[in-house]
Amino acid sequence: MICINIIDFELLETENFHSVFHLREDRESHIALTDALEIHFIDMVKWRRLKDKDIANNPLHRWLAWFDEASPPKLIEEVTNMDSAIKTANDRQTYVSSDVDTRRLYEMRELARLDWNSSIKYARREGLKEGMEKGEKEGKIEIARNALAKGLSTELIHDITGLDPQTIEKLS
Q: pTM of whole model > 0.70?
């Protein structure tokens, strides 16, 4: 099984825009649980910063150019003409987007994604500000309160603040 995550934020502290993970034993990393599972993370923020994109020779670069909402229409046309799989995907996307209800669902999903990203950025920004003003623990608790008020889940708040789930649940 291959899982591909195309993300529009910097998740991993690596220079690479494409990271691949496999399941390995913690103490003996040469032992893989299985070679039937790969988890890919493609960071579009880092992809956009990449200076030397090789659209002509690298299929991944072509796909990312097609996926990137910031790509100019001329580039989309170029990669669509270069790669039959991308052309097929583009044709299907055009067909699906012509349906008003499907397009409305897509736009609602995109709005939800943007809201979620905004909430995360807000929580991080507030966390840094509050952490500096009130101390680390107090700042984390304030972030958790704000995040709860924004409707974020206990699990996500735990990931952001490091506070244990019981502490977070007591705040609601």
A: no
